[in-house]
Amino acid sequence: MTRNSLTLRLILTSSAWVLVTLLVTAVLLVVLFRGHIEQRFEALLHDHLEELVAASELTPDGSFSMSWRPSDPRFNRPHSGWYWEILRSGVSLARSDSLWQESLRLAGSVDSESPWVQRLVGPEDELLQALLQQITFPDSGQPLLYVVAGPVTDIDDNVRAFTAQVAVTLTVFGCGLLLVVWFQVRFGLRPLRTIQLALSDIRQGKIGRLPENNPLEVEPVVHELNKLLDHNRTLLERARTQVGNLAHALKNPLTVIRNEAKSINNEHGHVIRTQTAAMTNSVDLYLSQARIAGSAGLLSARADVKAITEDLCFSMERLYRERALHLQCSGLDGCWFRGEAQDLEEMLGNLLDNACKWARSRVRVRAELRDERLLIVVEDDGPGIPEQQRSEVLKRGLRLDEMVSGSGLGLNIVQDIAALYRGSLTLSLSHDGGLRVTLNLPAAD
């Protein structure tokens, strides 16, 4: 796919939106999960704090004691990261075994009896999240400050593990979505591929119009293309009709003049007959070129090489039956010319007629397909043409031997028709010593 590919553009745009959506989803999930973990962590600290309050006892004289200690074993393991402490006026009344002889380093003073969360630095310089609450017991002169703390790493570890799971899950999900996007784009653009193949079939002459059972979005384009093809075909048919009318309009007066000139036996009559014959040949040539120029642009034109060649060979054998010429055809199966059958008939007819005029006993015709090109080779066993004179033969009206009938326009017309189809005509020496003519034309599937 190139930079200007519509498929690539749609896939990249859809993929970008998918990736952005997944990234935003991942961030939101991690943020929500962290908030949930912090709430659970705070709830756990609150449970431990209530357990400490329930275990606290104050005597009438103000002395403090605890009826039991929290059962969580993490409070008993030294420097475990889980600590609790009870203070009065900044003096520690009781602390967890995990603190040993150290105290928690509180930040700022306390003047509220509502619980609040605070970040502290522990004995091992670890970051702690602590829940603090100041409680005043009945008949107690001073409030007690309860502090329960746990390591922030517990929160971070849970969030980190969840983030890794989210990353893996969304990566797999994202790859699946990208694959779905690719299939969706390919499936959505399939009608364009269908139109492309149909246009290729039209160009090769397999069909004349685009199929109209298309999705609603592309149907207007198909409709306009079919109208364009119909309009082009109409113009070509009209041009052919006008060419035919022009041919009759010009050739009929020329025929009358030529017939009248037959009764004039002097030099003037000869000049008139010669010039009218030249004018007739010129009219035939240019009208033929005009017709070919129109038909060469017809996209749906397609001709069967085998059928046309075999018919022409049969006609030539009958035309030259007194000379007992043998015309041999080979390699014609599956060969199709991308153009008008009438043009192929005119080219092959001229080549076969020229070969039969000069052949001694045999004319061979073969065809082959090579790189989407059609090569048609016509060979005879006649005298051939010297290499230095081959380019002269293709000049309009030039004949190397005036003893052989013809106008001298045959090979030149073939060359002109081939050129209109972006083809070529080359002359060379055949295996039998005669002339080999190779016609290079566009092939149709």
Short description:
By secondary structure, the chain is α+β, with helices and mostly antiparallel strands.
What does this structure look like?
The chain has 445 residues and is α+β, with helices and mostly antiparallel strands. The strands form 4 sheets. A 5-stranded antiparallel β-sheet has the order 4-3-7-6-5. A 5-stranded mixed β-sheet has the order 9-11-12-14-13, covered by helices on one side. Strands 1-2 form a two-stranded antiparallel ribbon. It folds into 3 domains: 1-188, no CATH class; 205-300; 303-442, Heat Shock Protein 90 (2-Layer Sandwich), CATH 3.30.565. The model is unreliable at 398-408 (pLDDT under 50). Helix 6 (305-319) packs parallel to helix 7 (341-358). It has helices at residues 6-55, 152-188, 190-203, 219-261, 267-295, 305-319, 341-358, 390-393, 410-420, and strands at residues 56-58, 64-66, 83-88, 91-95, 116-121, 127-135, 144-151, 303-304, 326-330, 336-337, 362-370, 373-380, 424-429, 435-442. The two termini are 26 Å apart.
